[in-house]
Write a structure and sequence with these properties.
Helix 10 runs parallel beside helix 11 and helix 16 packs across helix 17. The chain is an alpha+beta fold. It has three domains: about 210 residues, 2-Layer Sandwich (Aldehyde Oxidoreductase, domain 4); about 160 residues, Aldehyde Oxidoreductase, domain 4, CATH 3.30.365.10; about 350 residues, Aldehyde oxidase/xanthine dehydrogenase, molybdopterin binding domain (Aldehyde Oxidoreductase, domain 4, 2-Layer Sandwich). A seven-stranded mixed β-sheet has the order 15-16-13-23-20-21-22. A five-stranded mixed β-sheet has the order 1-4-5-6-7, with helices on one face. A five-stranded mixed β-sheet has the order 18-26-25-24-19.
Length: about 750
């Protein structure tokens, strides 16, 4: 890292022009600077001088502000929302703010890593809650330093000055731009105690709408993703992966591959024994390294490679049958009794009415827009990687284990990420890039193709859910029994056996706390298919089953499904759920009624179209969907989708609206079409034609988002709208067609039943 003791970093315009010309130049990764060759300099650094004010803020002499964003932006808008948290406390002029991804913050603490930025994870819904306190403190500290610099210049107490839109204002009305104060402010020692934070009535940016700070760069093709990053002497690596995780190379002839102009080397890879999934090579592979992408792909095509199947083999159809048999076996003991309130068996014997149903959901892939890739330079003195990761600290651990380098010798840069959905919490592709860079002793740019992205994934397991509920003569649900079978996403990941259920079901999910006698059992199934974290897990699969079943209960009672739900929820109150969690039924009722009013639910019986509704809660946030659907012959049209969310204080309404609308469309696309199938343990889907995302014609004509205003600390929302979209759609389909879809993907099942 280059710099000066007074926290000033020099970057001349001439130096920048030299970088554009291809010579060695300076790259800023967030607010940390490092020497690198042939890597672009962010436009935010065109000023001559930047002054550091704290861990996240740099201000140049012209008053332009550069804010470092610590959490990877996977399309969830963290670059904008985290920047605005800091900028609001700083009283910055938003029109002069640039956001730059920080990359990994790590320092050497006696050989152990010290995470200098604290929380660094994206796409999990935790970025804003984790940032709310400490990033406001970062912005407030920078504002305090500027006030102190102005006070010293004017000879007046700092408490007589105020800040506004990038300026300090004196008692007589004179304005001093931050740029004129930045150099002096950077030399002032910070206070020993945290400085006071703004009160909500003084917020100017928080709660106000703002477009994505990177939007212009994205739509004009100027946004830089990891896939766009290059080093001048890097070799391009493409791979051929074994279709069986436990398979091996049977034969390999590289003669024709090595004859391709530009091909440099062929390197076999295999998983490391004893290393948890996601931290090593996923399956045996053969890498072709070449001087350019075309040569690498041509070389891969000419490999004479035969794979030997592993010892275990299964199919997705076999897996579902095993799951179905297991939950139908009344004598089968559950792997984990996740929740057991009251006495389900005794209550069920006294029931006046009983209803049962079974739901099945398929295996799913992540299908990220940006396939797995990694640029890696490894030598004895250090490592530099450009990685599209959701968890840079976990990526660091993979690099450190494979290289033995000290914390301070490993640099990980994280540009904007082209979609994560949980796939980039695993770092098998990082391990591949590091191993290849070590093997050829040159920088390597690893690039997966789309077929590998689909066939070499860590999938979300298929699941089967069986429900049994009993009601008394007053239509009250007096017992609820859910049995779920799936393959845990946490298997072979160092998680204790008694916690494997946590990736599959939430102990506090609806209707926990609402039904006195409630049992939730999980049955573990073995599978050779690699599994991993996925967007909306475990709520996505459970909400579809639970909220579809509630709709079936309403139908069996011949009543309005909204009435059934409101009776189940009961009066507004706070219900302790355990583990410190509480269900606020008033907030749940509110989002439910908001979508019902907006969709004109009062017409649910009279409209020729079908209306469906569903609600859910996740870690103190509340969501509901209402969907209107029509049927023309066998063509399903989703006319409208309405979603209401309550996340506490909203940082950026525009960003939240985009997140909720996007998650709604993602959930609908998943429910309509998507399914991974496999035979002989080989995935059958290889490209978009096999794994078809929904077309615009299949998605709603309008998607409306209702945001509940609140003053509670903000909660995350990256996948909040995922769980309730599919059941609301399935319930709408039942209204318009009388077809009850209990199996996804919906379109295939609906057409089968019509």
């Amino acid at each position: 890292m280059s710099g000066h003791s007074d926290n000033t970093v020099q970057l001349s315009r001439r130096r920048f022009l030299q970088v554009l010309a291809g010579a060695a130049g300076a790259l800023v990764v967030g607010i940390r600077f490092a020497e690198a060759a042939d890597l672009p300099v962010p436009p935010a650094l065109l000023g001559d001088t930047l002054y550091g004010l704290g861990a996240y803020v740099r201000i140049d002499a012209d008053g332009n502000v550069v804010i470092g964003v610590r959490d990877p932006d996977t399309g969830t808008g963290t670059s904008t929302s985290l920047s605005r948290i800091i900028a609001d406390e700083l009283d910055a002029d938003w029109t002069r703010v640039s956001a730059v991804p920080l990359g990994l913050g790590v320092e050497d603490d006696n050989g152990k890593p010290h995470w200098t930025y604290g929380h660094q994870a994206g796409g999990l819904g935790g970025a804003i809650p984790a940032a709310w306190a400490d990033l406001r403190e970062a912005g407030a500290l920078a504002r305090w330093l500027l006030l102190q610099a102005a006070a010293r210049r004017l000879g007046v107490p700092a408490d007589r000055l105020r800040c506004e839109e990038g300026s300090v204002i004196s008692p007589d009305g004179r304005r001093f731009g931050y740029g004129t104060l930045a150099e002096a402010a950077a030399k002032i020692a910070p206070p020993n105690a945290p400085v006071p934070l703004k009160t909500p009535d003084h917020y100017t940016l928080i709660g106000q709408p703002a477009g994505d700070i990177d939007a212009r760069a994205i739509v004009t093709g100027q946004a830089v993703y990891a896939l766009d990053s290059y080093l001048g002497d890097a070799l391009v690596a493409v791979l051929s992966h074994c279709p069986w995780t436990d398979g091996s190379v049977e034969s390999l002839d590289t003669t024709e591959t090595m004859a391709v102009k530009g091909v440099v080397k062929v390197v076999p890879l295999k998983p490391e024994a004893g290393v948890p999934l996601g931290q090593t090579v996923r399956a045996p592979a053969v890498a072709v390294l070449a001087e350019n992408t075309w040569a690498a792909l041509q070389g891969r095509a000419k490999l004479k490679l035969a794979w030997k199947a592993g010892a275990q083999s299964e199919s997705s159809a076999w897996f579902e049958q095993q799951a179905t048999d297991l939950i139908n076996d009344k004598n089968a003991a559950p792997t984990t009794r996740v929740r057991n309130d009251g006495d389900v068996d005794t209550a069920a014997k006294k029931a006046a009415h009983r209803i049962e149903a079974t739901y099945a959901q398929p295996w799913l892939a992540h299908a990220t827009p940006e396939p797995m890739n990694c640029l890696a330079r490894i030598d004895k003195d250090g490592a530099m990687l450009v990685v599209p990761t959701q968890a840079p600290q976990q990526a660091w651990k993979v690099v450190q284990r494979l290289t033995g380098l000290t914390p301070g010798q490993i640099e990980i840069r994280v540009p904007r990420v082209g979609g994560g959905y949980g796939r980039r919490l695993d770092h098998d592709y990082v391990a591949e890039a590091v191993l290849l860079a070590k093997a050829v002793e040159k920088p390597v740019k690893l690039m997966w193709t789309r077929d590998e992205d689909l066939t070499q994934d860590y999938y979300r397991s298929a699941s089967v859910h069986k429900f049994s509920a009993t009601l008394d003569g007053k239509r009250q649900i007096i017992s609820w029994n859910q049995r779920m079978a799936s393959a845990s996403a946490l298997t072979q990941r160092g998680v204790p056996d008694d916690r494997l259920w946590t990736s599959e079901v939430d102990a506090h999910q609806l209707p926990a706390g609402l039904v006195a006698n409630l049992r939730n059992d999980w049955y573990a199934l073995p599978s050779v298919m690699p599994r991993g974290p996925a967007r909306g897990m475990p709520h996505l699969s459970n909400a579809f089953a639970v909220e579809s079943f509630v709709d079936e209960i309403a139908h069996s009672l011949k009543e309005d499904p909204l009435v059934t739900r409101l009776r189940l929820i009961g009066e507004p109150r706070m219900i302790p759920l355990g583990d410190g969690r509480t269900l606020d039924t008033g907030r749940l009722i509110n989002v439910l009624k908001l979508v019902a009013d907006r969709i004109e639910w009062k017409n649910w019986l009279r409209t020729v179209n079908g209306l469906g509704i569903a609600c859910w809660h996740i870690n103190g946030t509340y969501v509901a969907h209402a969907i209107e659907a029509s049927l023309q012959g066998d063509r399903l049209n989703i006319e409208r989708a309405v979603c209401a969310v309550d996340v506490g204080r909203v940082i950026n309404p525009t960003g939240l609206e985009g997140q909720i609308a996007g998650a709604t469309l993602d959930a609908l696309s998943t429910a309509l079409n998507l399914s991974v199938s496999y035979k002989d343990s080989q995935v059958q889907q290889h490209n978009w034609k096999d794994y078809p995302l929904a077309s615009m014609a299949q998605l709603p004509d309008t998607t409306e988002v209702i945001m509940v205003p609140g003053d509670r600390d903000p909660s995350g929302a990256s996948f909040l709208a995922m769980p309730t979209a599919a059941p609301a759609l399935a319930n709408a389909v039942f209204r318009v067609s009388a077809v009850r879809v209990r199996r996804l993907p919906l379109l295939k099942e609906m057409l089968r039943m019509l």
